[in-house]
Each structure stands twice: as C-alpha cells, then as structure tokens.
Amino acid sequence: MNPMGVLAAELSGNVTSIGYGLAAIGPGIGVGIIFGQGVNAIARQPELTGVIRTNMMLGFVLTEALALIGLVAPFIFQGI
C-alpha cells in the first residue's frame, strides 16, 4: 500500500471519531435541558413530581437514542 493510502485510512478513522464527538454534543445539551427544566418544574409544582419525572425519563431515553444512532451510523454507512 502506498503512503497516501495509509494516510487516507488514518484520516478516515480520525474523521469518524471527530464526527461522533461532535454528534454527542447535541444529545448532551438535550439531556442537560431536560433535567434542568424537570428540576425547575418539580420545584414549582411538587405535587406533580411523578408525572414530571416520567416525562423527564421519556425525554431522556429518546435523546439518548439519538446518541446511540450517532454511534452506530458510521459502522452502518462504512460499507456504502
């Protein structure tokens, strides 16, 4: 393999890692907003703690699903 082929392979792996790192920023911000607003809502209306907590967990699960899709997507599209 020529030196340019090796360089291209190394660059491709690094770009994938950087891409996932950037893709993880969105869900990280989303989780922070979800829990921050959930705590704020519970502080304002403590009698609705159960409903608010359930909605927080649902939002958390959906947001984390995006992070997992971002983790798996490079492996899926690698063959294309």
Give structural notes.
Residues 18-76 form the V-ATPase proteolipid subunit C-like domain. InterPro entries: ATP_synth_csu_bac/chlpt, ATP_synth_F0_csu, ATP_synth_F0_csu_DDCD_BS, ATP_synth_F0_csu_sf, ATPase_proteolipid_c-like_dom, F/V-ATP_Csub_sf. Key component of the F(0) channel; it plays a direct role in translocation across the membrane. A homomeric c-ring of between 10-14 subunits forms the central stalk rotor element with the F(1) delta and epsilon subunits. With 80 residues, the chain is mainly α. It has a domain at 34-79. It is 88% helix and 0% strand. It is built from three helices and no strands. It has helices at 3-23, 25-44, 49-77. Helix 2 runs antiparallel to helix 3. The protein is elongated. The mean pLDDT is 81.
Give the ordered list of helices and strands.
HHH
Output the structural class.
mainly alpha
Can you tell me the overall shape?
Answer: elongated
Beta-strand content: under 5%
Give the termini separation. Answer: 22 Å
* Total helical segments: 3
What average pLDDT do the residues reach? 81
Sheet having the most strands: none
Helix content: over 70%
**Unreliable runs, pLDDT <50, ≥5 residues?**
none
How many β-strand runs? 0
Kindly provide the radius of gyration, computed on alpha-carbon positions and rounded to a whole number of angstroms.
19 Å
Family: Belongs to the ATPase C chain family.
Membrane topology: Multi-pass membrane protein
Protein name: ATP synthase subunit c
Transmembrane segments: 20-43, 55-77
